[in-house]
């Protein structure tokens, strides 16, 4: 384990971080969409409003109870894709309390003096956000270092921090002291990865080691076949990363290649209503590839009637569909020129490929990919194949596990990943 994790504290990563503004569960879906567009990791923490009187100092336990969970872009698109939510005016005014899945274990409040290694362990156990007080008495890590070297690490207790704050602010009114103690910033896993990129030298030789040698390829991923309705992807339990791979059989029908994904990161800054309509009405392959723009209006109308998988029909058995054209551009993808690969793919068009790497890719390369694309994960494909045969996925959790793992726990580079697919999403 690198010593950098022992000698740095959480407060070092919060320098320059803006003050967190709480997003309440009574806010509308429309407000959540705007907030998610400015967030990290494609999601926002959601809170309950305070029930305590103004001026009352809230402790960490009370604040933890007010935290509801993290709302992602995929959560909103899946909610809007429900048949009763496809009416634009009503759906956008619904409070997010009806959309979010409560889980207050995704956030934890920590002291600025918490060791970085302890923070990483919390994130490895499932914590996705760290709530760090913006204390006026915090002066960086030098004082903490001297305490650490003397064998008397400062305890992360509210009493010690509050007493320091009182002594430093004794000449301020009580309301001012209370307000300063209620200021927090939110530290995400993306912030931690950005810090790790800056200290790659201290992590040597890990950064140049392949992800297969490190044994961090997660083969327990969610996937759905391209021929299934896209809405089936939303019926899986929440996972980390919040992504479902869309797979297609290769010519030998023994392997599957990845052609796209339905994920929070891909839907991060999309047209939510267009994406919700597509999720409810198209097959998974159609959703990730888009519909060709050069289709005639008649062929597109026929396509709607034959591929409206989420709708019903009238008494005569005629399919009813909302005549709304969909393309990969409308949900934020950047499609390339159309390509006809086969008869079954004639209605598909190319789009920006899912973010992938090879099993031979280095840890540093995968980290750089994730940060440059603001992605929460990278799909891993076979190193000796050009067909994007999916092997697994690497996300924040796998990277944090790699950098904190003892060298003796590494696996040989020739490790086999023939154990099969992850969580099958077929019905």
Could you walk me through the main structural features you see in this protein, from its secondary elements to its overall organization?
Helix content is 31%, strand content 14%. The protein has helices at 4-7, 10-13, 29-37, 60-66, 73-80, 88-91, 116-124, 142-149, 158-168, 174-181, 189-198, 211-214, 272-281, 284-289, 297-307, 363-372, 396-403; strands at residues 23-24, 43-47, 67-72, 107-109, 129-133, 184-188, 222-225, 243-249, 256-263, 356-358, 377-381, 390-395, 423-424. The chain has a four-stranded mixed β-sheet. The protein has a three-stranded mixed β-sheet with strand order 1-2-3.
Q: Unreliable segments (pLDDT under 50, ≥5 consecutive)?
A: 141-180, 292-326, 333-351
What proportion strand?
5-15%
Number of strands: 13
Quote the average pLDDT: 76
- Gap from first CA to last CA: 44 Å
- The class by helix and strand makeup works out as alpha/beta
Quickly describe the structure.
This protein is an alpha/beta fold and 427 residues long.
